[in-house]
Design goal:
The chain has two domains: 105 residues, no CATH class; 289 residues, no CATH class. It is 72% helix and 3% strand. The chain is built from 16 helices and three strands. Strands 1-2-3 form a three-stranded antiparallel β-sheet, covered by helices on one side.
Length: 408
């Protein structure tokens, strides 16, 4: 093979690897680093690539390619596999032909079994319902509602609906299910049930990666991903709001809720820790995390949430300061786990940050709008923005400490 063809093969291979990373939940800096590592180890310049949040531009002496890569969900196991492949390439022991074969196998990796995904959705939402204040009965309702909602997402929303319409319908269906359960069992807390169910729709991957890109000073990619996440938040809120409006037409008024109600039994710190461990570990299934990292990812989420609980309850730091400190701890732990377990820190950061994402604000803002409490809706939305900024600051602090070090 002549030099020109070899150059094209290398650039195309690096671009294919970058595409797999980008469409499966990797942050921009990791995509760029991996593509540059692959190209340089096969004799090409690492400056031939330009990566955006939804596209990769590749140029060479006689090769040019631009790929549009829509923002999707995440299969972090593919990110792990491509990262490991690039490390082996850097060791100099894998010829290009063999690397191509390995990359094709990574592309063909099957999704998690359906039963495992349903288990992740149900138990994950049950765990998060508890950490957001729900009782054990609320937790059961969230589990059942989440199973129905996940079935809808797999069989209807994913294959046939746009992301916008799918999230609106998901928000509507999930809320209706919780309203029905509340009418059957009035002792349940409707707000906690809906929050626990809606967490299934929260765009954790684009939200976290958007924050991380901003922290890495990649503002264009970060704002693009955050805009995508914000649009999904808005669609979920529209669905929730519409469900309450429809119910008010049928019942003659909006159900009266009095804000977040914390169950005194599940509010105990040990139960909160266990719920965070369960919720984060099982949501790792939905993020496509390799099975051997379910528990470590859950531990990172549990420790981050424990820091938040202790700081918010027993110190004057408030929610903003507690979220900042918890996000910083999660970012540090993610880097530590990445080094110890030889796995991209993205795997642990996305899972670990998830309990801190102000997803409950989506529900309460939608409810306050539906019940014509506009001032409360504005204040809830403002608090969600403040908590988002706290997470950004926490990631920035951790990144500034580890910046001189080699990436995990």
């Amino acid at each position: 093979m002549d030099g020109r063809n070899n150059s094209e093969d290398v650039l195309k291979f690096a671009s294919d690897a970058g595409r797999i990373l980008l469409e499966n939940g990797a942050e921009i800096s990791r995509v760029e680093e991996t593509m540059e590592r692959i190209a340089s180890n096969y004799g090409e310049s690492g400056e031939n690539f330009f990566v955006l949040s939804n596209g990769i531009f590749t140029t060479g002496r006689s090769y040019a390619n631009a790929e549009f890569i829509p923002i999707k969900g995440a299969r972090l196991e593919k990110v792990v596999e491509v990262n490991q492949l690039s490390r082996k390439i850097a060791s100099g022991h894998i010829p290009l032909s063999e690397a191509k074969e390995r990359l094709e196998k990574i592309k063909a990796l099957p999704s998690k079994p359906k039963w495992e995904q349903f288990l992740g959705a149900g138990l994950g939402c049950a765990g998060f319902c508890i950490i957001f204040g729900g009782s054990f009965l609320d937790c059961l309702a969230s589990l059942l509602s989440a199973l129905v909602l996940f079935f809808f997402s797999m069989k209807v929303s994913g294959p046939y609906l746009s992301k916008t319409l799918g999230n609106i319908c998901g928000g509507f269906i999930g809320t209706v299910l919780c309203i029905l359960f509340h009418q059957l069992v009035p002792s349940t807390n409707l707000g906690n049930m809906v929050v626990g169910t809606m967490i299934l729709l929260i765009p954790g991957v684009p939200f976290t990666n958007g924050l991380r890109d901003v922290a890495n000073e990649d503002y264009l990619a970060g704002m693009t991903r955050l805009a995508d996440a914000l649009m999904m938040f808005l669609c979920i809120a529209i669905g929730v709001c519409f469900a309450f409006v429809v119910h008010s037409w049928m019942a003659g008024g909006v159900i009266q809720l009095k804000g977040t109600v914390i169950n005194p039994i599940t509010a105990k710190v040990p139960i909160q820790m266990l719920a965070a461990l369960v919720g984060t570990s099982f949501f790792a299934v939905l993020f496509g995390v390799p099975r051997k990292f379910y528990f470590p990812a859950g531990v990172v989420g549990m420790l981050g949430w424990t820091v938040f609980i202790i700081m918010s309850r027993f110190t004057p730091m408030g929610d903003f300061g507690s979220t900042f400190l918890a996000a910083t701890v999660v970012a540090f732990l993610s880097r530590y786990a990445a080094v110890r377990l030889k796995c991209p820190s993205t795997v642990f950061l996305i899972c670990g940050i998830f309990p801190l994402i102000p997803g409950a604000g989506v529900f309460w803002s939608a409810y306050y709008i539906a019940s014509n409490q506009i001032n409360s809706a504005f204040m809830t939305g403002l608090m969600s923005v403040k908590l988002t900024l706290a997470i950004v600051l926490g990631i920035i602090v951790a990144a500034s400490v580890f910046h001189p070090m080699k990436k995990g």
